[in-house]
Amino acid sequence: MSKKKRALGRGLSALLEQNETESTASLPVETQTGNVAEIAIAEIETNPFQPRTHFEEQALQELADSIRVHGIIQPIAVRQMAPNKYQLISGERRFRASQLAGLTRIPAYLRVADDQTMLEMALVENIQRSDLNAIEVAISYQRLLDECKLTQEELGQKVSKNRATVTNYLRLLKLAAPVQLAIRDREISMGHARALAGAEGEELQTELLGQVLSEELSVRQTEALVKGTKPVKKAGKKRRTRQELTFIQSKHVKELKESLDSSVEVRMDEAGKGKISITFEDDEDLSRILDLLNS
After folding, report:
1. Could you give the CA distance from residue 144 to residue 171 in angstroms, rounded to a whole number?
2. Is the CB of residue 96 less than 8 Å from the CB of residue 72?
3. CA 125, CA 109: separation in Å to the nearest integer?
4. Which of 36, 55, 143, 134 shows the shortest CA–CA distance to 99?
5. Contact 217, 186 (CB under 8 A)
């Protein structure tokens, strides 16, 4: 009777337990590209193109504890560099947690990929399926532009983002270092970062960052703070006096705020003319608001 392979995990064993006459595991690893195989962890090196640079120890330990109980549910992806030598394409968090869990072998998809594909695959997987911080995303975008000679339009197509979103991420790399660290550590949002980008000079950005953090300012408050540091332009034409809203108008504005779940401001002059301003946090929030308005 054919002896079954040792189970790798409760969710994966059904995929890998085959008769020896049918199993790809009996073939040379080089011929198994595209299939799942057990590979010694000691034979795998990490991906030098991995965009993630920070792994939370507690989260890794929790994943390691889960792996000890349930095994590896989703294989990592590797490419073969030489006999008994592999390089991670994606799944570094699972790989690190498996090491913590004391595993000596790990299930992996075998793929063929050049360096550019390696970088693209690792980036896309992390952006769409994990929680890269905004600075890591920005660095990865910049590497794709520099190393793969892509335009921002081509980059947007590869990562399924519009060009404006790509541009907003790249602008983060021009901020003062303390601001970038605050974004990386999720102490401030992308909205805060875009507001601080309007401050001239790294010293001023750093100073305003301290105030934002100490006073726990919102994005809108941060925008007002940055605006207050800019010199006031001399008035040209005499501005019309701002007209107070009527009770009914104020009620409509309140209903619009609740409907859009966003800040709404209406300004009117004495002649009855005016404008409506709707605040949004990022491109996704803008799309959400536009969908609500269209519906």
Report:
1. 15
2. no
3. 14
4. 55
5. no
The answer for 27, left when phi > 0, alpha when psi is -120 to 50, beta otherwise, is beta
- Catalytic sites, residue numbers: 92
Report d(CA 70, CA 112) in Å as an integer: 29
Question: Which residues on neighbouring strands pair with residue 268, listed in sequence order?
Answer: 243, 274
- Rounded CA gap, 266 and 243, in Å? 10
- CA 210 – CA 207 distance, rounded (Å): 5
* 176-185 pLDDT tens trace: 888 998 998 8
Task: Identify the CATH class of 13-113.
Answer: alpha beta
Highest mean pLDDT (candidates 29-33, 188-192, 256-260):
188-192
Name the strand (E) or helix (H) holding 46. none
Rg (CA), the chain: 26
Closest CA to 189 of 212, 170, 206, 208: 212
What is the sign of the dihedral through the CA atoms of 221, 222, 228 and 234? Answer: negative
Backbone angles phi, psi at 135, to 5 degrees: -70, -40
Half-sphere exposure of 248 (CA within 13 A, CB side): 0
- The sign one gets for the Cα dihedral 17, 23, 29, 34 is negative
Stretch(es) of the chain classified as CATH 3.90.1530.30: 13-113
| Phi, then psi, of 270 in degrees rounded to 5 | -65, -25
* 26, HSE (Cβ side, Cα atoms, 13 Å): 11
H or E stretch covering 156: helix 152-158
Contacts for 221 with CB less than 8 Å, ≥ 6 apart: 215
Q: How confident is the model at residue 38 (pLDDT cuts 50, 70, 90)?
A: very high
> Phi and psi dihedrals of 80, rounded to 5?
-85, 130
- Exposed / middle / buried, residue 237 (Cβ in 10 Å: 0-12, 13-18, 19+): exposed
DSSP label at 30? G
Helical ranges in 71-133 per DSSP H: 92-100, 115-129
